Amino acid sequence: MSTLEDLRRLPTADLEEAVVFSEWRRLRHTSARSLERTAELMAALGHRPSELRFPVLGVVGSKGKGTAAAYASAALTGLGRRVGTVMSPGVLSNADRIRIDGRMVDEQTRRAALIRIEEARRRLPAADPDTGYLAPTGLFLLMGLLIFDELAVDAAVAEAGIGGASDDLSHWPLEAVVLTQIFGEHLDILGPTVSDVAKDKAAVMGARTRFCVSLADEHPAVPARARATGTVLLQPTPEAFELVRHMPEGFQRSNAAAGVTAALRMAGGAHAPSETAEALRTVNYPGRLSVHEAPQGRCVVDSAVSGPGLEAALRFAEDQMGGIDQVLVCLPPGKDIEGFIDALGEFRGARRFVELPGAYTGTPRGRCGPGSGSRCMTWGRTSMRLPGPGSCRSCCADAAPWQQARSCSPH
User: Is 269 part of a structural domain of the chain?
Assistant: First the structure.
């Protein structure tokens, strides 16, 4: 094992690899993430989640968490709050998972937090298949909240990795929750049924949760958990929808409105000043129904992971471009590949599946893949892109603070 002095001399990307990903890479095929190990790490750090000096808004759901988190953060910034945000996964790299007022924290601060976490981790028993491993998403979340506590933010917005009660986000008492749409995803971890997924995600509501802005009330587990914890269930407000009316109608606008509603409520329920509307207009989210000019022509990029999401993206692309001749799909395992195949069943153009080189996500197993039949997507390039994490790097290399696109990192 390298000494701490050796780690301090590493480039930041290598330091991050050693601290955040080492247990996951070594044990992911033989064990599972361990919330208990994260709790032990926090104890070794002297970090007490119940004693945070700022409220935390948790964002959970099957799709749209990033949009809700980005718009909640931008709204709080526009309301004059100093806001820390933890995104999951990152935007262009893992470095921009952690932001304050929309801007990445500086490299020196990130390095100091990584070393602090590693010092505490070395005081724990070594991870093995029986103990489970520290999940990278949980370590980034812990890292962000340590930084936010040190830099005295007024509020934090934290996006869950996978799940709710089974995610490391559940360690922190949440003042507020945004719950986006829920569907059958990660059933091997959260399932086996969609009802199980809803129950796991809704369980982030706790005794200190004042309200939950929900887009998933159709699942009985959501109102049941709200009643059990005394949490007020809310819907996105007309004012919030008006503030994000520039966005495409549908899932994306609803998720953004949910985030804005939560921000306004956290700030005391006051009406949004002009500064809030101005901050919200700065959010530019490539990879979420965004239109781009590519060498081969115009293309729409979206990050749908369900059949209904793909259908919405197809409608948007038809409206923007007047027709689609090709669709490229990159979808990680655990997502709705069957829904994608069905949504493309009547599509007359080329349907292509592409696995990202070097991505951790891998290729879904099912009816789709090279040589697996006429209904399935094949390898190649396309005019409409429905990416998994990491496929928007070229279009936002110079992104402003709230300009975002996803990158690939393990959960």
Answer: yes
Domain assignment of residue 294, given as a range: 290-391
| CB-count burial class (<10 Å; 0-12, 13-18, 19+) for 29 | exposed
Q: Domain check: are 261 and 317 in the same one?
A: no
pLDDT score for 284: 75
Asked if 300 and 294 count as a contact pair (C-beta separation under 8 A), the reply is no
As to burial, measured by CB atoms within 10 angstroms (0-12 exposed, 13-18 middle, 19+ buried), residue 374 is exposed
| Residue 50 belongs to some domain of the structure | yes
351 sits in the region (left: phi over 0; alpha: psi -120 to 50; else beta) called beta
pLDDT (average), residues 305-328 = 88
* In a shared domain, residues 110 and 85: yes
90-107 confidence digits (pLDDT tens): 777 888 899 999 899 999
Residue 211: strand pairing partners: 176, 232
Q: How many CB atoms lie within 10 A of CB 49?
A: 14
- For tokens 């304050």, the residue is 100
Q: Which backbone phi and psi does 92 adopt, to 5 degrees?
A: -100, -25
What does the pLDDT look like over 134-153, one tens digit per residue? Answer: 999 999 999 999 999 999 99
Does 76 reside within a domain? Answer: yes
Phi-psi region of 61 (alpha: psi -120 to 50; beta: other; left: phi over 0): left
pLDDT at 355 over 80: no
Indicate the pTM of the whole model.
Answer: 0.83
Same domain, 100 and 208: yes
Strand runs labelled E in 87-209:
98-100, 103-104, 155-159, 176-179
Residue 203 is predicted with a pLDDT of 95
